[in-house]
Amino acid sequence: MYKLFYILYIIILTFNLSSCTKMDNLNGYIMKSKDFTLLRKNISTKDNVKNIFGSPSIQYNINDNLSTNIFLYQNISNFLFFKPIITERKIIVINFNKDIISSINQYNLTNQNKISYYNDYNKNNNITQKSFLSEIFSNIGQITPN
Question: Which of 23, 107, 136, 137 could form a disulfide with 91 if both were Cys (CB 3.0 to 4.6 A apart)?
Answer without folding.
Answer: 107
